[in-house]
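Internal ticket - ligand job 344, iron/sulfur cluster:
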Amino acid sequence: MKNILELSKEELISYFQKIGQPRFRQVQVWNWLYQKGKLDFFEMSNIPKIIRERLARDFVIDLPKIYTVQKSKDGTTKFALSLHDENIIETVLIPEGTHYTQCLSSQVGCPLGCTFCSTGKMGFVRNLSCGEIIGQILVAKSYLKDTKDKLKIRNLVFMGMGEPLLNWENVKKAIYILRDKQAFDFSYRHTTISTVGIPKPLQEFAEKDLGSIAISLHAPTQELREKIMPKAASIVSLNDLIELLKNIPLRNRQRITIEYILIKGINDSLDHARQLNRVLSHIKCKINLIAFNPGEDIEYEAPDEKSISEFEKYLRDKGQITTLRKSKGQDINAACGQLRAKIL
Ligand code: SF4
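stdout (structure tokens):
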């Protein structure tokens, strides 16, 4: 039976039209599902009983199941979720003052195999469906309700397992549901896609103004990118990616986030900082430095405090807006793919 979470707004309206019901039934169902979190057709009390019975005959409401939950000392909560085919994905709630940011997965595993990434090491299993993407938020919301946690989820980042723009059709469908006022009502400002830079969908994401863009750059030269992110570097060369970013449509105050994982002895020298500054000189961006978080199956090491601060200072002195992201949840394997790797 079809999972109702897989249906776009138009698809649900067309279903109701086919069974001779008015369009506003779609609004009612979305309201129950996505705003009230009621995951049982029979509790949708403003819908006639006969229609509720019909819905229950035609659809299921299928959510990923919580396999494990780990809470870090800093409040980061990491879920391993089991899908209908027993594949495991991860989603993480990161506390940020008055709210949570939820980090979402878009694929089981990842085909890109970046050498510093636990998910990349696993290889690719399959894309997530739209319902499995949305399901991650529904599961997290219901967990927060059950644990009487008052913080709300305000920001969404597609930064979990997988390259979201290699699963663009499903991710796009999910984003349209997430931003719809009748559903979750997440604004474009609170939705970020993190990508190595797959040109066509990236352009579409920007042109349709679907949210903020974070580019996983991690290397300031094509040569180094080929070494540490070989597949990404073969999909788009650094030159082409930079050209694309120079011309991408942005709102007035919007900046592209450049993600740069500092790895000891690989990309963390002052020379690398100089090259990075040069490469980004004509891009409206802010740089997010992240100290590599060692995983059990990866041989790279975390950078020294000294090289981190020198790298950061160099970029700041050159006028680059630069932040150093503290890696949260270190005690619970919160880097992408680490928890799943452990479970498997
Ligand atoms: Fe895939 Fe992102 Fe990991 Fe690269 S860093 S392998 S794109 S999940």
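Auto-summary: The first strand starts at residue 2 and ends at 3. Residues 110, 112-114, 117, 119-120, 161-163, 196, 216, 336 surround iron/sulfur cluster (CB under 6 Å).
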